[in-house]
Amino acid sequence: MSRSFLYARVSTSDQRTANQELEAKTAGFAIEAHRTFSDVVSGSVPASQRPVFQKLLERMEPGDVLIVTKLDRLGRNALDVRSTVEMLAAREIRVHCLALGGVDLTSPAGKMTMQVLSAVAEFERDLLIERTLAGLARAKVVGRVLGRPVKVSSTLIGELKRAGLSQSVVAQKLGVSLSTVKRKWKDQVVV
Predict the structure, then answer these.
(1) What structural domains and CATH numbers belong to the chain?
(2) Mind telling me the catalytic residues?
């Protein structure tokens, strides 16, 4: 008898997997709590390098079914998703993606669907990166200063250093952190 497992993944610790668990339940999968594996890791980390995913693999047996809500839960690039699904298929574990209508990704139709969709997703991600880099380059060309705004100048810190104030007093006086003062302090010469 096949068992169903859910692999739910979020990228940051302030996110939760509850929606993914609800999606699986709504789709009709009765997944026992001890067969739900929730991970907090970036999708850019290959599944083979995720400790929670490795624990999941240790528990799964041939004939089991792995449920994911979307392809990007398995990985962000087409090669990683494909190699993960192929590895699971070699172990006789079926992979169902709810966003694709619950299609079994290890079936011929599922493989084709997965490859087309993951390639499109990767293409969109690459385009986004390309547009972002172009926008940053354009901003630099027109003289826009990128990064965090400067709260205090090194010159002002130098003046206060020469006036004999301590680093902590300078930080309090200027309303900046002590680390900011220390970083700019070392470059100032006392005359």
Answers:
(1) 4-121 (3.40.50.1390), 144-191 (1.10.10)
(2) 11
